[in-house]
Queue: 3 jobs
Job 1
Amino acid sequence: MRKGGKSYNEIIGALHLPKTTISDWCKDIQLTKPQLFRLYQSKKSGALKGSIIAANRKKANRLYKTEILYRQGIKEVGKLTKRDRFIAGIALYAAEGTKSDKGCAFANANPEIIRFMIRWFKEFGKVLKDKFRGAIWLHDGLSEIKAKLYWSKVTGIPIVHFYKTYIAQDKKDSKKIRKNIHHFGVFTFYVSDVILIRTIKGWIGGIVRDP
């Protein structure tokens, strides 16, 4: 078997003998260059398989730890009071909302954040559901129809109340690699209310002022 180019592990698997015995029996057998190359390729393939298994285990461990921290974070926050929701919404709008005096607009790719802010506007801005308008920022090549259906379901805003979708063309000569691809794009909802945006800016001022 060794003269035929079999590896020690292959011989052990066939004969069920200790490696030391096999090694002692085969120590004087010289393999040809093609045989040695095959064994090298096999060993290389095994090492690659081992590295893939190790990488997958590392990834699974990372995902597990991430999930534990996520659940721990939710537990630490606990149930929000009305005032907690009020302050959280102000902070989110201060970060992601427009400050134009023409009206309110809030953009994000995270559906949970968009959903939270829709509820926030209804609760604290007293905005009726038919007053919301939406728009999508979408990369070229992604489905506009799927994106509209998705965000309409998330927000409750009818598609007929969506503005024209902005399609971002890929730069063919760019060497930049897109790491984060939002398959349903970035969503923006609008509320045309000058009084409300001025009120929100006052709320923002209330939480960022010096103590």
Job 2
Amino acid sequence: MLKRTKLFFLATALLAGIAVQTAGAADKKTANVIAKVNGKTLTKSDFSIFVTMRAGNHQLSQLQLQRLLAEYINRELIYQEALKKGYDKIPEVIATIDNQRRNVVAGYTVRKLVSQPLSEQDLRKVYQQKMSRSTREYKASHILVKSEKEANNIIKLLNKGADFSQLAKQKSIDASSKNGGNLGWFAANQMIPSFQKAVTQLKPGSYSRKPFKSRYGWHIIRLVSTREVPPPPFDTVKEKIRAQLQNEILSRHLNELRKNSKIKIYR
């Protein structure tokens, strides 16, 4: 609503000159009128919504606004023609309008739901619980192959002194093979559980003595190094936390709606 209100006042200010040229001094009855097309009144408030849909919250020049007004009037002309031809009665059009109406109404409801104010205290509480501590990151390489037997054969080669990165280039089916299996830095929780468990049990410079399986295949990991990463300052993650809390509010609301509704899916 804030964006729409801002654009409404912007549109009103920029169109003041146009209104004076085309309609003269407006009285109270026509203060919100921006144009009439074949007797149909078009309002500034409706045009403001059109501008929001077309331009978002971007600053607009008077020339840009004039072009949008021309487009707005053109749309009305085509719409009136469509009504005359009865296109609004076509089942496909009716279904599309109904679907768009549901999207708009549901979207408005979601915005109202997640727009409830969240205090600084609410945001800092989540920050203290989830983001205020340093985290450990791992730098590792891996080799991914299709079978356990092949993975064990690679481990035998490593035990004999073979170079991990060269074997990754030659044997790994993962996209990282071209970089010698290098995965860069990552937090353990960014990886699948089996990978997370394996990498946290290694010491820097060591590699998996036993391969482990995932849905991608069989893995062998070499841990290169670890580091401690300080927590991000609160101000840099405040809006991220706000978005997370808004998503949680929406998720809880949807779960409650589902819980109290009768839903039957036909397949």
Job 3
Amino acid sequence: MYLTRHPTSNGTQWARDGELLPPSFTLSGWLELPSASASDILRRYPTGDDAPESALAPIDPHLEVWASGVTYLRSRDARMAESTVSDFYQRIYEAERAEVFFKAPGWRVVGNDEPIRVRKDSTWSVPEPELVLVFNSRLEIVGYCTGNDVSSRSIEGDNPLYLPQAKCYDGSCSLGPGIVVAGSADMGNLAIQLRIFRGGSEVFRGETSTSSMKRTLEDLVKYTGMELTFPNGGFLMTGTGIVPPDEFSLQAGDHVDVSVGDLLLRNGVRS
């Protein structure tokens, strides 16, 4: 099953496989359910008209997006190269405890065909294509979407304690275009691709797979929910394995395509 969120004459509504669900349906309410019954209950919801073509970010405004870092070897190498304290990232990569951090509240997330941003005080900004987990109130993985964790490498590279400023700002988190309802067993070998266009021409392309991730998806969710409650579930970005070359930085006017499996998330870039 596939969930999308749309603007309608009745307000914002979710859709299942392209058909509108009742206005009473909310993602956060569905994520309160245990995974054993959630899919069956979702199938029993009545549907109505075809969903509008335009879609919003697939998240309720009050839900939270968290993120994991240094989960791929390529990410570790890039962070070590940019940082003034390179062993910091080697230690994270090898540690038992995963790195997790808060990325954005749902109301700050942008969706497909909406603009992402680069910080005006950053000299080196990059997109980070990521598998994004959707987990329920019991920390069970129930779905996934595509994500772009836009980041300032210059700010984080100056000092790891600047991570919140490098990662958290308006237009730095994009999710979409919808949510594939699935368990973690379906996410072990998803292809991830990043394409960046400038002036109508492709200037970067990179590919990886979730099979290259060092940590398990369950482990990442476990550390996210350790000493934290998520009564309505949440989202977790799982890190990037694709990093553009050091001489590349995002610019206003660029376009970024991120695909995870069959999901394609497209965003223009503004400053």
